Amino acid sequence: MNLQQYLVLEALASDIPPREIAEILNLETHDVEAVVKSLEERGLVRKSPGLFGERYKLTEQGEKALEEWRAKIRSELAKAEELFKKGREIEAQEIVEKWLPILPILLGLGVISLALWKLLTSRLPVAEE
Question: Where, by residue number, does the polypeptide cross the bilayer (predicted)?
């Protein structure tokens, strides 16, 4: 699974419909629908009837894949946190920069805590003008 698929899976787990996922991730709706279809073909999500139309629900396999990605992200960010504490800021920044574009999304979806967000982003260098 790639990063885009992970983010769509994470959003689907929060019961966010594809149209809204497209807005959150700044993608075209048809692109999100293509990702959802690939997740469905892989057995990670299934269509489920809902009060306001069809929704997608994670399968057991989808839940497992989601937890594996969450564990990977949390592990890497925890490693960055430890490196910051040990004064190894360059190594820590390399890890954080890998995840930086999606940190706001991870925070919004509850994958990372606000405390971790503040620690990770407060240590990044500020661009000079």
Answer: 99-120
